[in-house]
Amino acid sequence: MIPVVVRNIVTEAQGVVRVVLGSTDGAALPDFEAGAHIDVHLPGGLIRQYSLCRMQAEAQYYEIAVLKDPQSRGGSAAIHQLAIGHSLFISPPKNHFSLVKTKRNSLLVAGGIGVTPMLPMAQQLEKMGLPFEFHYCAKLPETAAFSAALEKSSFATKMHFHYSQVAGSGRMDVVNVLSCHSNDSELYVCGPAEFINYVLLQAKMLGWPEERLHREFFSAPIVDEAMSENTAFKVKIHSTGEMFDVEADQSIFEVLDNNGVFLAVSCESGVCGTCQTGVIDGIPDHRDVFLTDTEHAQGKLVMPCCSRSRTPVLELDL
What positions does the domain FAD-binding FR-type occupy (predicted)? Predict the structure, then answer.
């Protein structure tokens, strides 16, 4: 864990604050590439993941931007209660949403606070001289974090703003934009779960290959409980042969933790990838949004924090 101090807090839009985190001694913080996030250890024992929203201008600072979510499980509310001078611990940067190393065009599509990982992506692509197009969707300019800065950025000519509640602007024509880039681009999308799923669905219907679709969820989509009824099963530990019962109202992680089997977990909703575990035998019942459709179909990985088993026994590579 890295100790940091809140150096500044700036209101970037309605309900959105940008928090500047600095090293405690002025030393450089670890380098990162666009798309990276950090785990932030908040008061009360909460651990939440937030995208680093700007490439480092000075090596001793990181910046995150957080929307205060009325349905928050406590993370965003805790961030909005921080003050300059507060001390925190963070993880080194992790990156599950990095730019593909290619000279192919990049299509960046952000919905609301999903702009946070996109801004450093645009900065990095511009610095590297690579082609890209950036579409930013929000309700109003005053709810769109960083919109003023993006309008004046060095890549302003590549920006396209879509404000659903502004006359003359309106919602993004997703199908038209995706159609124009289906043969020559990598797609990166971030925002609310329903927004991401809609964009990905349209891309797949237009023939975009899975390997060119890149996304990062901040929260898992709402699950239709009627479509995902839980049943009991057993989980087997490959290294020891131990078998544990997972009841319908328990997660795999809870059972492992209760039986002394350590597994790093953070989001507990299948978003962050922290608990990703290999599958030796059995068929996972995937409930995460971290793995791709291809990885789900292969069944070689599972997120024990939220996913279950379609077979009586699920053997894990632990």
Answer: 1-100
Residue listed under structure tokens 């809609």: 198
At 226 the pLDDT is 45
Q: CATH number for the domain including 311?
A: 3.10.20.30
Helix (H), strand (E), coil (C) string for 280-318 = EECCEECCCCCCCHHHHHHCCEECCCCCEECCCEEEECC
Residue 196 domain-assigned?
Answer: yes
Beta-bridge partner residues of 140:
none
Same domain, 113 and 13: no
| Residue 241 forms part of a structural domain | yes
State the burial class of residue 205 (Cβ atoms within 10 Å of its Cβ: 0-12, 13-18, 19+).
exposed
3-state secondary structure 138-162: ECCHHHCCCHHHHHCCCCHHHEEEE
The token pair at 45 is 């024992």
**What's the full length of the chain, in residues?**
318
Counting as low any pLDDT under 50, the low residues of the chain are: 226-227
| 93 neighbors 32 (Cβ within 8 angstroms) | yes
Maximum C-alpha span of the chain: 64
| pLDDT (0 to 100) of residue 302 | 94
State whether 274 and 258 are in the same domain.
Answer: yes
Collect all residues with Cβ–Cβ distance below 8 Å to 221 and sequence separation of at least 6.
193, 194, 197, 289
Q: What is the CA radius of gyration of the chain?
A: 20
Query: pTM of the predicted model, to two decimals?
Result: 0.82
**Looking at beta carbons, which pairs linking 166-170 to residues 24 or more positions away fall under 8 Å?**
166/140, 166/141
Position 200 in a domain = yes
Place of tokens 């974090």: 145
Question: Strand order in 213-217's β-sheet?
Answer: 159-163, 132-138, 105-111, 185-191, 213-217
Name the domain boundary from 55, 90, 125: 90
**Backbone φ and ψ of 153, nearest 5°:** -70, 170
What are the start-end ranges of the E strands in 14-131? 16-23, 37-41, 47-51, 61-67, 87-90, 105-111
